[in-house]
Amino acid sequence: MSRLFQAQKAMRRKRQAALQRGVVAIMDVGTYKTACLVLRFEENTPQGEGVGHMAGQSNFRVIGATTTRSRGIRRGEVDAMPETERAIRTAVQGAQKMANVRVDHVIACFSGGRPTSWPLQGEVVLESGPCSVHDIARVLSSIETPDLGAGREVLHAQPVNFGIDHRTTLRDPRGQTGEMLRADMHLLSVDAHAIENLLTCIHRCDLEVAGLASAPYAAATSALVEDEKELGAACIDMGAGTTGVSIFMRKHMVYADTVAFGGAHVTSDISQGLHIPAQTAEMIKTRYGGVVATGMDDREIIALEADTGDWHHDRRSVTRTELIGIMRPRIEEILEEVRKSLDRAGFNELPSQRIVLTGGASQIPGLDGLAARILGNQVRLGRPLRVQGLPEAAKGPAFAACVGLCMQGAEPQDEFWDFNAVPERTSGRSLRRAVRWFRDNW
Known about the structure:
Layout (H helix, E strand, L loop, with lengths): L1 H20 L1 E7 L3 E11 L15 E11 L3 E2 L2 E2 L2 H19 L5 E6 L5 E10 L7 H9 L10 E13 L2 E4 L9 E12 H13 L3 E7 H9 L2 H6 L1 E6 L4 E7 L2 E8 L3 H12 L3 H11 L12 E5 L5 H4 E5 H26 L8 E5 L8 H9 L3 E3 L18 H11 L20 H11 L1
Parallel strand pairs: 1-6, 6-11, 12-17, 17-18
Antiparallel strand pairs: 1-2, 2-3, 4-5, 7-10, 8-9, 8-10, 12-13, 13-14, 15-16
Helix pairs in contact: 2-4, 5-12, 7-8, 7-10, 10-11
Protein backbone atom coordinates (compact mmCIF):
# COMPACT_ATOMS: atom_id res chain seq x y z
CA MET A 1 0.00 0.00 0.00
CA SER A 2 3.02 2.27 0.39
CA ARG A 3 3.10 3.66 -3.19
CA LEU A 4 -0.58 4.61 -3.16
CA PHE A 5 -0.19 5.78 0.44
CA GLN A 6 2.31 8.40 -0.75
CA ALA A 7 0.13 9.32 -3.74
CA GLN A 8 -2.92 9.86 -1.53
CA LYS A 9 -0.87 11.92 0.92
CA ALA A 10 0.24 14.09 -2.00
CA MET A 11 -3.39 14.52 -3.12
CA ARG A 12 -4.31 15.52 0.40
CA ARG A 13 -1.65 18.25 0.40
CA LYS A 14 -2.90 19.51 -2.97
CA ARG A 15 -6.47 19.59 -1.64
CA GLN A 16 -5.32 21.67 1.31
CA ALA A 17 -3.50 24.03 -1.08
CA ALA A 18 -6.68 24.38 -3.17
CA LEU A 19 -8.74 25.11 -0.06
CA GLN A 20 -6.23 27.76 0.98
CA ARG A 21 -6.47 29.37 -2.44
CA GLY A 22 -10.26 29.20 -2.17
CA VAL A 23 -11.10 27.60 -5.53
CA VAL A 24 -11.27 23.97 -6.65
CA ALA A 25 -12.92 22.06 -9.50
CA ILE A 26 -15.15 19.04 -8.97
CA MET A 27 -15.44 16.56 -11.84
CA ASP A 28 -17.59 13.50 -12.43
CA VAL A 29 -16.21 11.56 -15.40
CA GLY A 30 -19.08 9.31 -16.41
CA THR A 31 -19.97 7.14 -19.37
CA TYR A 32 -22.69 9.47 -20.67
CA LYS A 33 -21.58 12.89 -19.43
CA THR A 34 -18.59 14.68 -17.96
CA ALA A 35 -19.71 17.28 -15.43
CA CYS A 36 -17.50 19.96 -13.88
CA LEU A 37 -18.35 22.33 -11.03
CA VAL A 38 -16.12 25.13 -9.75
CA LEU A 39 -16.36 25.76 -6.00
CA ARG A 40 -15.42 28.93 -4.17
CA PHE A 41 -14.79 28.59 -0.45
CA GLU A 42 -16.19 31.59 1.36
CA GLU A 43 -14.87 30.71 4.78
CA ASN A 44 -11.93 28.32 5.14
CA THR A 45 -11.12 26.49 8.32
CA PRO A 46 -7.88 24.57 8.98
CA GLN A 47 -8.02 20.92 7.98
CA GLY A 48 -7.18 19.48 11.37
CA GLU A 49 -6.79 15.91 12.50
CA GLY A 50 -10.30 14.78 13.26
CA VAL A 51 -12.00 11.47 13.77
CA GLY A 52 -15.43 10.75 12.44
CA HIS A 53 -17.75 11.98 9.75
CA MET A 54 -16.96 15.17 7.90
CA ALA A 55 -14.13 16.62 9.94
CA GLY A 56 -12.89 20.07 8.93
CA GLN A 57 -16.02 22.03 8.05
CA SER A 58 -15.92 24.57 5.20
CA ASN A 59 -18.53 26.68 3.46
CA PHE A 60 -18.54 26.79 -0.32
CA ARG A 61 -20.58 28.00 -3.26
CA VAL A 62 -20.81 26.74 -6.84
CA ILE A 63 -19.70 29.57 -9.15
CA GLY A 64 -19.30 27.62 -12.39
CA ALA A 65 -20.94 24.53 -13.89
CA THR A 66 -20.65 22.79 -17.25
CA THR A 67 -21.75 19.43 -18.61
CA THR A 68 -20.49 17.91 -21.84
CA ARG A 69 -21.10 14.64 -23.60
CA SER A 70 -18.52 12.09 -22.50
CA ARG A 71 -16.23 10.70 -25.15
CA GLY A 72 -13.79 7.86 -24.77
CA ILE A 73 -15.43 6.42 -21.62
CA ARG A 74 -16.83 2.89 -21.56
CA ARG A 75 -18.44 1.33 -18.49
CA GLY A 76 -17.00 4.05 -16.28
CA GLU A 77 -13.39 3.64 -17.46
CA VAL A 78 -11.18 5.39 -19.97
CA ASP A 79 -11.45 3.63 -23.34
CA ALA A 80 -9.87 6.25 -25.63
CA MET A 81 -7.52 8.68 -23.88
CA PRO A 82 -7.43 11.51 -26.48
CA GLU A 83 -11.24 11.69 -26.56
CA THR A 84 -11.51 11.56 -22.76
CA GLU A 85 -8.90 14.30 -22.47
CA ARG A 86 -10.87 16.45 -24.93
CA ALA A 87 -14.10 15.99 -22.94
CA ILE A 88 -12.39 16.86 -19.66
CA ARG A 89 -10.77 19.94 -21.18
CA THR A 90 -14.10 21.09 -22.63
CA ALA A 91 -15.92 20.69 -19.31
CA VAL A 92 -13.23 22.45 -17.27
CA GLN A 93 -12.86 25.34 -19.70
CA GLY A 94 -16.62 25.88 -19.77
CA ALA A 95 -16.86 25.90 -15.97
CA GLN A 96 -13.87 28.25 -15.69
CA LYS A 97 -15.40 30.64 -18.20
CA MET A 98 -18.68 30.71 -16.27
CA ALA A 99 -16.85 31.22 -12.96
CA ASN A 100 -14.44 33.76 -14.51
CA VAL A 101 -11.53 32.18 -12.62
CA ARG A 102 -8.70 29.81 -13.43
CA VAL A 103 -8.69 26.43 -11.69
CA ASP A 104 -5.52 24.44 -11.08
CA HIS A 105 -6.78 21.63 -8.81
CA VAL A 106 -9.54 19.11 -9.45
CA ILE A 107 -11.22 16.47 -7.31
CA ALA A 108 -12.59 13.69 -9.52
CA CYS A 109 -14.73 10.58 -9.23
CA PHE A 110 -15.29 7.64 -11.55
CA SER A 111 -17.52 4.57 -11.53
CA GLY A 112 -15.34 1.85 -13.06
CA GLY A 113 -12.39 -0.14 -11.82
CA ARG A 114 -14.32 -3.18 -10.50
CA PRO A 115 -14.36 -2.06 -6.83
CA THR A 116 -13.92 -4.68 -4.11
CA SER A 117 -14.63 -4.12 -0.41
CA TRP A 118 -12.39 -5.45 2.35
CA PRO A 119 -13.46 -5.25 6.02
CA LEU A 120 -10.30 -5.25 8.19
CA GLN A 121 -9.45 -5.05 11.88
CA GLY A 122 -6.52 -4.05 14.06
CA GLU A 123 -5.73 -3.57 17.76
CA VAL A 124 -2.97 -2.10 19.91
CA VAL A 125 -2.30 -1.63 23.62
CA LEU A 126 -2.79 1.89 24.96
CA GLU A 127 0.60 2.47 26.53
CA SER A 128 0.51 6.03 27.85
CA GLY A 129 -2.68 7.52 29.21
CA PRO A 130 -5.83 8.44 27.23
CA CYS A 131 -6.22 7.60 23.56
CA SER A 132 -4.59 10.14 21.25
CA VAL A 133 -4.37 10.72 17.52
CA HIS A 134 -0.99 8.99 17.65
CA ASP A 135 -2.68 5.88 19.10
CA ILE A 136 -5.23 5.98 16.29
CA ALA A 137 -2.38 6.11 13.76
CA ARG A 138 -0.76 3.12 15.51
CA VAL A 139 -3.90 0.99 15.47
CA LEU A 140 -4.57 1.77 11.81
CA SER A 141 -1.00 0.91 10.86
CA SER A 142 -1.36 -2.41 12.72
CA ILE A 143 -4.17 -3.54 10.43
CA GLU A 144 -3.03 -6.45 8.30
CA THR A 145 -3.75 -5.52 4.70
CA PRO A 146 -4.80 -8.40 2.45
CA ASP A 147 -3.30 -9.44 -0.83
CA LEU A 148 -5.35 -7.28 -3.20
CA GLY A 149 -4.17 -9.16 -6.26
CA ALA A 150 -2.11 -8.12 -9.25
CA GLY A 151 -2.90 -4.72 -10.72
CA ARG A 152 -5.09 -3.57 -7.82
CA GLU A 153 -4.79 -0.37 -5.80
CA VAL A 154 -6.49 1.07 -2.73
CA LEU A 155 -8.91 3.91 -3.49
CA HIS A 156 -10.49 4.34 -0.03
CA ALA A 157 -9.33 3.13 3.38
CA GLN A 158 -11.58 4.51 6.09
CA PRO A 159 -11.76 3.74 9.81
CA VAL A 160 -15.45 3.07 10.39
CA ASN A 161 -15.55 2.00 14.02
CA PHE A 162 -13.41 2.06 17.16
CA GLY A 163 -13.51 0.15 20.42
CA ILE A 164 -11.72 0.40 23.75
CA ASP A 165 -11.90 -2.72 25.93
CA HIS A 166 -15.58 -3.75 26.25
CA ARG A 167 -16.88 -0.63 24.47
CA THR A 168 -17.16 -1.75 20.87
CA THR A 169 -18.94 1.03 18.96
CA LEU A 170 -17.04 4.26 19.59
CA ARG A 171 -17.19 6.95 16.94
CA ASP A 172 -14.36 9.03 18.40
CA PRO A 173 -12.05 7.33 20.95
CA ARG A 174 -9.79 10.33 21.57
CA GLY A 175 -9.36 11.22 25.23
CA GLN A 176 -10.89 7.97 26.46
CA THR A 177 -8.94 5.62 28.71
CA GLY A 178 -8.56 1.89 28.62
CA GLU A 179 -6.11 -0.88 27.90
CA MET A 180 -6.82 -2.11 24.36
CA LEU A 181 -7.74 0.06 21.36
CA ARG A 182 -9.40 -1.63 18.38
CA ALA A 183 -10.30 -0.29 14.95
CA ASP A 184 -12.44 -1.56 12.08
CA MET A 185 -11.50 -0.27 8.64
CA HIS A 186 -13.25 -0.50 5.29
CA LEU A 187 -10.81 -0.76 2.39
CA LEU A 188 -11.95 -0.34 -1.21
CA SER A 189 -9.66 -1.56 -3.98
CA VAL A 190 -9.97 -0.93 -7.73
CA ASP A 191 -8.04 -1.79 -10.88
CA ALA A 192 -4.85 0.26 -10.97
CA HIS A 193 -5.11 0.95 -14.71
CA ALA A 194 -8.51 2.62 -14.21
CA ILE A 195 -6.90 5.12 -11.81
CA GLU A 196 -3.74 5.65 -13.84
CA ASN A 197 -5.55 6.26 -17.13
CA LEU A 198 -7.89 8.82 -15.60
CA LEU A 199 -5.05 10.61 -13.80
CA THR A 200 -3.07 10.75 -17.05
CA CYS A 201 -5.99 12.37 -18.89
CA ILE A 202 -6.44 14.96 -16.14
CA HIS A 203 -2.72 15.77 -15.98
CA ARG A 204 -2.65 16.27 -19.76
CA CYS A 205 -5.23 19.01 -19.23
CA ASP A 206 -2.70 20.88 -17.02
CA LEU A 207 -4.62 20.09 -13.84
CA GLU A 208 -3.42 18.79 -10.48
CA VAL A 209 -5.48 16.02 -8.91
CA ALA A 210 -6.43 17.03 -5.37
CA GLY A 211 -8.58 13.99 -4.69
CA LEU A 212 -10.02 10.86 -6.24
CA ALA A 213 -13.18 9.05 -5.13
CA SER A 214 -15.49 6.22 -6.07
CA ALA A 215 -18.70 7.45 -7.75
CA PRO A 216 -20.98 5.11 -5.71
CA TYR A 217 -19.48 6.59 -2.53
CA ALA A 218 -19.89 10.17 -3.76
CA ALA A 219 -23.48 9.60 -4.91
CA ALA A 220 -24.51 8.12 -1.56
CA THR A 221 -22.98 11.07 0.28
CA SER A 222 -25.49 13.43 -1.33
CA ALA A 223 -28.50 11.14 -1.89
CA LEU A 224 -28.78 9.57 1.59
CA VAL A 225 -30.14 11.61 4.49
CA GLU A 226 -28.41 11.54 7.86
CA ASP A 227 -30.80 9.01 9.44
CA GLU A 228 -30.24 6.59 6.57
CA LYS A 229 -26.47 6.90 6.86
CA GLU A 230 -26.70 6.29 10.60
CA LEU A 231 -29.16 3.37 10.73
CA GLY A 232 -28.12 1.61 7.54
CA ALA A 233 -29.09 2.12 3.90
CA ALA A 234 -27.99 1.20 0.40
CA CYS A 235 -27.61 3.72 -2.40
CA ILE A 236 -28.06 2.45 -5.95
CA ASP A 237 -26.47 4.93 -8.37
CA MET A 238 -27.85 4.05 -11.80
CA GLY A 239 -25.56 5.65 -14.34
CA ALA A 240 -25.19 5.11 -18.07
CA GLY A 241 -22.39 2.55 -18.19
CA THR A 242 -22.51 1.11 -14.67
CA THR A 243 -24.76 0.88 -11.63
CA GLY A 244 -22.97 1.64 -8.38
CA VAL A 245 -23.93 -0.01 -5.08
CA SER A 246 -22.83 1.42 -1.73
CA ILE A 247 -23.94 0.63 1.81
CA PHE A 248 -23.67 3.08 4.69
CA MET A 249 -23.84 2.28 8.40
CA ARG A 250 -23.20 4.63 11.32
CA LYS A 251 -22.39 7.39 8.81
CA HIS A 252 -19.62 5.45 7.08
CA MET A 253 -19.46 3.50 3.86
CA VAL A 254 -18.97 -0.17 4.73
CA TYR A 255 -19.42 -1.76 1.30
CA ALA A 256 -19.23 -0.76 -2.35
CA ASP A 257 -19.65 -2.61 -5.61
CA THR A 258 -20.42 -1.95 -9.27
CA VAL A 259 -22.81 -3.70 -11.65
CA ALA A 260 -21.52 -3.53 -15.22
CA PHE A 261 -24.87 -2.46 -16.69
CA GLY A 262 -26.61 0.90 -16.81
CA GLY A 263 -28.93 3.17 -18.72
CA ALA A 264 -26.81 3.05 -21.89
CA HIS A 265 -27.54 -0.67 -22.17
CA VAL A 266 -31.28 0.07 -22.08
CA THR A 267 -30.73 2.62 -24.86
CA SER A 268 -28.77 0.05 -26.85
CA ASP A 269 -31.60 -2.48 -26.52
CA ILE A 270 -34.10 0.09 -27.82
CA SER A 271 -31.80 1.00 -30.70
CA GLN A 272 -31.34 -2.61 -31.76
CA GLY A 273 -34.92 -3.67 -31.11
CA LEU A 274 -36.47 -0.83 -33.11
CA HIS A 275 -33.64 -0.42 -35.66
CA ILE A 276 -33.13 3.25 -34.92
CA PRO A 277 -29.99 5.35 -34.17
CA ALA A 278 -28.76 5.43 -30.59
CA GLN A 279 -29.45 9.17 -30.34
CA THR A 280 -33.10 8.63 -31.32
CA ALA A 281 -33.34 5.70 -28.92
CA GLU A 282 -32.05 7.86 -26.05
CA MET A 283 -34.64 10.54 -26.84
CA ILE A 284 -37.48 8.00 -26.97
CA LYS A 285 -36.34 6.39 -23.71
CA THR A 286 -36.23 9.75 -21.96
CA ARG A 287 -39.58 10.99 -23.30
CA TYR A 288 -41.72 7.83 -23.40
CA GLY A 289 -39.85 5.19 -21.38
CA GLY A 290 -41.20 3.21 -18.44
CA VAL A 291 -41.27 -0.25 -16.87
CA VAL A 292 -44.98 -0.80 -16.08
CA ALA A 293 -47.47 -0.96 -18.97
CA THR A 294 -51.15 -0.08 -18.60
CA GLY A 295 -54.13 -0.40 -20.91
CA MET A 296 -53.67 3.21 -21.99
CA ASP A 297 -50.16 2.49 -23.30
CA ASP A 298 -51.52 0.35 -26.15
CA ARG A 299 -53.11 3.48 -27.58
CA GLU A 300 -50.09 5.76 -27.17
CA ILE A 301 -48.29 5.79 -30.52
CA ILE A 302 -44.60 6.75 -30.81
CA ALA A 303 -43.45 7.86 -34.26
CA LEU A 304 -40.08 6.53 -35.41
CA GLU A 305 -39.21 9.09 -38.05
CA ALA A 306 -35.96 8.74 -39.98
CA ASP A 307 -34.30 10.04 -43.14
CA THR A 308 -33.07 6.92 -44.89
CA GLY A 309 -35.13 7.49 -48.04
CA ASP A 310 -37.16 4.31 -47.50
CA TRP A 311 -40.72 5.60 -47.00
CA HIS A 312 -41.96 2.53 -45.13
CA HIS A 313 -38.93 2.51 -42.82
CA ASP A 314 -39.02 6.26 -42.19
CA ARG A 315 -42.72 6.33 -41.25
CA ARG A 316 -42.84 3.48 -38.75
CA SER A 317 -44.35 3.70 -35.28
CA VAL A 318 -44.59 1.63 -32.09
CA THR A 319 -46.82 1.71 -29.05
CA ARG A 320 -45.54 2.63 -25.61
CA THR A 321 -46.38 -0.93 -24.50
CA GLU A 322 -43.91 -2.28 -27.07
CA LEU A 323 -41.26 0.17 -25.87
CA ILE A 324 -41.76 -0.91 -22.26
CA GLY A 325 -41.51 -4.54 -23.38
CA ILE A 326 -38.01 -3.80 -24.68
CA MET A 327 -36.86 -1.78 -21.66
CA ARG A 328 -38.17 -3.87 -18.78
CA PRO A 329 -36.06 -7.06 -19.24
CA ARG A 330 -32.80 -5.11 -19.14
CA ILE A 331 -33.86 -3.08 -16.10
CA GLU A 332 -34.92 -6.29 -14.35
CA GLU A 333 -31.50 -7.75 -15.12
CA ILE A 334 -29.76 -4.72 -13.59
CA LEU A 335 -31.89 -4.91 -10.44
CA GLU A 336 -31.29 -8.67 -10.12
CA GLU A 337 -27.54 -8.06 -10.23
CA VAL A 338 -27.95 -5.34 -7.60
CA ARG A 339 -29.84 -7.79 -5.39
CA LYS A 340 -27.02 -10.34 -5.70
CA SER A 341 -24.51 -7.68 -4.67
CA LEU A 342 -26.58 -6.71 -1.63
CA ASP A 343 -26.91 -10.37 -0.66
CA ARG A 344 -23.14 -10.84 -0.84
CA ALA A 345 -22.72 -7.85 1.47
CA GLY A 346 -25.15 -9.23 4.07
CA PHE A 347 -27.44 -6.24 3.66
CA ASN A 348 -30.43 -8.16 5.04
CA GLU A 349 -28.66 -8.38 8.43
CA LEU A 350 -28.54 -4.63 8.97
CA PRO A 351 -31.02 -2.99 11.39
CA SER A 352 -32.44 -0.73 8.68
CA GLN A 353 -32.70 -1.82 5.07
CA ARG A 354 -33.78 1.30 3.20
CA ILE A 355 -32.74 1.46 -0.47
CA VAL A 356 -32.32 4.78 -2.28
CA LEU A 357 -32.23 4.98 -6.08
CA THR A 358 -30.33 7.81 -7.72
CA GLY A 359 -28.41 8.53 -10.92
CA GLY A 360 -29.68 9.49 -14.36
CA ALA A 361 -31.24 6.09 -15.15
CA SER A 362 -33.26 6.12 -11.90
CA GLN A 363 -35.69 8.64 -13.44
CA ILE A 364 -37.47 6.00 -15.55
CA PRO A 365 -41.16 6.06 -14.49
CA GLY A 366 -42.21 3.13 -12.31
CA LEU A 367 -38.65 2.08 -11.50
CA ASP A 368 -39.05 2.50 -7.73
CA GLY A 369 -42.02 0.11 -7.63
CA LEU A 370 -40.23 -2.51 -9.73
CA ALA A 371 -37.12 -2.16 -7.56
CA ALA A 372 -39.17 -2.68 -4.39
CA ARG A 373 -40.56 -5.93 -5.78
CA ILE A 374 -37.20 -7.30 -6.92
CA LEU A 375 -35.06 -6.08 -4.03
CA GLY A 376 -37.73 -6.74 -1.40
CA ASN A 377 -37.11 -3.58 0.61
CA GLN A 378 -38.37 -0.08 1.13
CA VAL A 379 -37.26 1.93 -1.89
CA ARG A 380 -37.34 5.66 -2.53
CA LEU A 381 -35.98 7.93 -5.23
CA GLY A 382 -33.10 10.10 -4.05
CA ARG A 383 -32.10 13.56 -5.22
CA PRO A 384 -28.83 15.26 -4.23
CA LEU A 385 -28.82 17.61 -1.28
CA ARG A 386 -29.03 21.33 -1.95
CA VAL A 387 -25.77 23.13 -2.59
CA GLN A 388 -25.39 26.91 -2.75
CA GLY A 389 -25.17 28.24 -6.28
CA LEU A 390 -25.95 24.93 -7.99
CA PRO A 391 -27.78 25.57 -11.31
CA GLU A 392 -31.31 24.22 -11.62
CA ALA A 393 -30.21 21.88 -14.40
CA ALA A 394 -27.73 20.19 -12.03
CA LYS A 395 -30.15 19.49 -9.19
CA GLY A 396 -31.47 16.16 -10.51
CA PRO A 397 -30.47 12.57 -9.63
CA ALA A 398 -28.00 12.48 -12.53
CA PHE A 399 -25.76 14.86 -10.56
CA ALA A 400 -25.80 12.98 -7.24
CA ALA A 401 -22.16 11.88 -7.57
CA CYS A 402 -21.01 15.37 -8.55
CA VAL A 403 -22.78 17.03 -5.62
CA GLY A 404 -21.55 14.34 -3.22
CA LEU A 405 -18.01 14.97 -4.39
CA CYS A 406 -18.48 18.67 -3.58
CA MET A 407 -19.43 17.74 -0.03
CA GLN A 408 -16.51 15.34 0.33
CA GLY A 409 -14.04 17.85 -1.06
CA ALA A 410 -15.15 20.57 1.34
CA GLU A 411 -15.84 18.33 4.34
CA PRO A 412 -13.50 15.34 3.99
CA GLN A 413 -14.16 12.12 5.81
CA ASP A 414 -11.01 10.81 7.45
CA GLU A 415 -9.11 8.07 5.69
CA PHE A 416 -6.11 5.92 6.56
CA TRP A 417 -3.58 8.41 5.17
CA ASP A 418 -5.05 11.30 7.18
CA PHE A 419 -3.42 9.98 10.36
CA ASN A 420 0.22 9.71 9.24
CA ALA A 421 -0.03 5.97 9.68
CA VAL A 422 2.64 3.92 7.93
CA PRO A 423 1.81 0.31 7.00
CA GLU A 424 4.04 -2.02 9.01
CA ARG A 425 3.45 -5.25 7.15
CA THR A 426 1.30 -6.97 4.58
CA SER A 427 -0.46 -10.23 5.31
CA GLY A 428 -3.36 -12.26 4.08
CA ARG A 429 -4.36 -13.58 7.50
CA SER A 430 -7.12 -11.00 7.88
CA LEU A 431 -9.01 -12.67 5.02
CA ARG A 432 -10.28 -15.26 7.48
CA ARG A 433 -11.90 -12.49 9.51
CA ALA A 434 -13.40 -10.58 6.61
CA VAL A 435 -16.55 -12.69 6.28
CA ARG A 436 -17.29 -12.52 10.01
CA TRP A 437 -16.65 -8.77 10.28
CA PHE A 438 -19.96 -7.61 8.84
CA ARG A 439 -22.04 -9.87 11.07
CA ASP A 440 -20.08 -9.23 14.29
CA ASN A 441 -19.82 -5.46 14.02
CA TRP A 442 -23.03 -4.35 12.29
